[in-house]
Design brief:
Keywords: Guanine-nucleotide releasing factor. By secondary structure, this protein is an alpha+beta fold. The chain folds into three domains: 41 residues; 154 residues, no CATH class; 123 residues, DOCK DHR2 domain, lobe C (Methane Monooxygenase Hydroxylase, Chain G, domain 1), CATH 1.20.58. The protein has eleven helices and seven strands. It is globular, with a radius of gyration of 24 Å.
Length: 334
Amino acid sequence: QMWEEAIALGKELAEQYENEMFDYEQLSDLLRKQAQFYENIVKVIRPKPDYFAVGYYGQGFPTFIRNKVFIYRGKEYERREDFEARLLTQFPNAEKMKTTSPPGDDIKNSSGQYIQCFTVKPKLDLPSKFHRPVSEQIVSFYRVNEVQRFEYSRPVRKGEKNPDNEFANMWIERTIYVTAYKLPGILRWFEVKSVFMVEISPLENAIETMQLTNDKINNMVQQHLNDPNLPINPLSMLLNGIVDPAVMGGFTNYEKAFFTEKYMHEHPEDHDKIEKLKDLIAWQIPFLAEGIRIHGEKVTEALRPFHERMEACFRQLKDKVEKQYGVRAVVSYL
């Protein structure tokens, strides 16, 4: 299903058929295939595989993997538990580590075999040709393919715990892994060649979370616009989880943590970041409005009361946000 790669190879072949071999019959057949590949990219939803970091620690392993970390591409719909079971059958004497922290020398120098495995998130590296916003169906391929950087995030609390707002002092310790080659390649796994760590402040974490939520709504809206036959349940759960006050709490907690005079006085350097977070909150409204419009068109009569309640919650949310953070309008490429 890597149609993007097939198209690139097809262009090379087309050049041969057209200008070297003058085989127009083969050329016409190839161009028809390419047309189908382009249509597939836009219309077919492809499963996104998970990626796993695997460390082999201890002197019991062969030298080519001993005390090294590798990034593996899982199979379609493969859960971490299933991947681990598959991995451990290859090393029946190995012990599975229960922590994701890098092991000490006692583990690395021991005579045994210790395997560490956890899920990592691929980092999107969009080709430079996409210099303006494009459809999520086109971008989604690059979210899990042609990737070389992966990250693992671990929450770290600094200072005293605030029972009223856990976001205020929740930092993120993020480890970035860079592989020797892009995945997938000839192999489904490559060695990690460099590792570095960054700390994400609570405010930066809030911005990132808000951006991800907006992207998730936007992406699902685009999927439904591209394919009217998609099931409505995932859209229902996503929208309701954001607009229902009973399960909401996302940015109201951010308001309590960061939009106070006390925080602004203590962190004047964060002024631009606070404005960025406010902007993202404001942008969520038009994305939600489009999602709820689509939901209203597709909802069954049995779920109509659920939709009407969601609409009522959204109207309250919209009034509050637009009054405090201004009005935004969705641009036409949606």
